[in-house]
Amino acid sequence: MRTALLVAAFDSQLKWCARIHRELRARGFACRVVVPDIRAALSEQQIADAGVASVETMSWEEMTAEALEADVVVSGLSGPLTKRLSVELSAVVPRLDGPGPVLVSGWVGIIIEKITAGYLDRCGTDVVAVNSAHDVAHFREAGRWLGLPDGNLLLSGLPIISATPEPQKQGPIRRVLFADQPTVPGSQAERGYVYQQLIAYARAHPERTVLLKPRHRPGEDTFHRMKHHPEDLLRGVELPPNFSVDYTPVDVALAEVDLLVTMSSTACLEAIDRGSRVALVLDLGVHERYGNQVFLDSGLLRTFRQITEDRIGTPAPAWRDGYFHGAGRTGTERIADRVEELLASGERPSRAVWETDYFRSAAESHLATAARLVPRQSPLARRKLKHGPLKGTLSHVAYNGLPPVVRRPLKRWAKDHQLF
Known about the structure:
By secondary structure, the protein is α/β, with parallel strands linked by helices. The chain is 43% helix and 13% strand. The chain has helices spanning 11-26, 44-50, 60-69, 79-90, 115-122, 133-146, 188-204, 230-233, 250-253, 267-273, 304-308, 317-323, 331-345, 350-354, 357-370, 379-387, 389-401, 404-416, and strands at residues 3-7, 30-36, 56-58, 72-75, 102-106, 127-130, 153-155, 175-179, 209-213, 243-245, 259-262, 277-281, 301-302. Strand 2 (30-36), helix 2 and strand 3 form a beta-alpha-beta unit. Helix 1 (11-26) packs across helix 2 (44-50) and helix 5 (115-122) crosses helix 6.
């Protein structure tokens, strides 16, 4: 039986892997989902929400050893960790009998930052699953200048959406969902402003149900850490009866949502896919720190005044079609199709990349650092240098030994009392 190893560390990565897991399993693959012992955070609820029965936790070394034994390895990890995986496999696979595993990488959502760096981190894999036509064009151009072959680029589309979206709903707006993000906007003041505008919207439309969907529950963690959770910022605030904080997974909640509001969350694509109206908050302006610069041509940027007045846009066809590719094939199907093609042919497009000057240099740099030929400072040493021996040690122990639900208020208290 063909085997597949799917690797994730956070909920968004697991959600992406889960869709590919489902497709590969339907095609007869024996699939395992693993979490390496790097920075990772997956609660039981997040695992259940992703639709995965179970995950295995193992060391990085164990994970790479298992990868060498698998037919397919799907990395949902961040760009730097995917690069680490491909570099370390490139140092071993050429010495093995056979072509080695098919290594798959991709992006778990809309790329709002580090577009070139993200591609270069993933360029050493056999299938680089790309979500939009615009991104593919950018990657091909970057690769051309760096001498990187583009045979591993696959315009698959995002695995969590379909090939063709449903028609946009035309009935009255009864249910509104705000898809929150952990770091957008980043400041407490801006985040508080957005929440207050959402509350004002709920008061202006008492006949509508308005839901604020946080990125995660208090005490949970994601790849991008949330500093100002809505439950903290809204504590003590008088809320209208039609407004509430809700943790229903977005893909479940969208079945009844008429309007999705967000800053720049990938949930906007999921909403378009399900036929929901979408409005992307424009009040704070357009800026890379909000990630909404990639939506300039979407036709969906709106101020809260426009949203409150129901002046909602529709997706610009060219922008929409860049993510929804039609042809009756979903992103997961396209990825699985390509995996099966490579397994049948024995071809591994990564090998051509591994032989380039760019990748060789990147691999040498990584392996030198990993072998400690380049000095590296430990987190404990960095904290001691910043805070002093005693405070630095206490900070390190607190960070690594306490759960986020305890660590965060303790950190705020220490900061308020100028202990650090």
